[in-house]
Amino acid sequence: MGISFDQALGMHEQALDFRAKRAEVLANNISNADTPNYKARDLDFSSVLAAQAQKTAGDSFSLERTNTRHIAAEGFDDSADSTLKYRVPTQPSLDQNTVDAQIENSNYAQNAVDFQASFTLLNSKFKGLVTAIRGE
Q1: Domain ranges in the chain?
Q2: Cβ contact 117:11 at 8 Å
Q3: Which residues fall within 8 angstroms of residue 95, CB to CB, at 6 or more apart?
């Protein structure tokens, strides 16, 4: 009987991936806090969860190659743009920048804590699998 990592790990792998992508987006916002006309963006967890549920349900589409000379679309992921949303500013800026550094730093810190929690859960799942394989 083989081990299915998808069943053993559950959503923890996707949660860790989401937290890493969100950290990148939040860091980009923080680095552009003084850029005129920059619009703050963030990932919406519910959209990511809905996209993941749709993928597991088999409702996703695939590209078809009609000619052998067509290039395969590897790594094509249209869900990234659909889950990346613009943030509504709490206080308008004169230069049209929507980044609030304090909110971004707070969100980044919370995301780091959530990332560590997801990593710890994933690590404990792997330790459990190793214990099961060794028969301890």
Answers
A1: 5-134
A2: no
A3: 36, 37
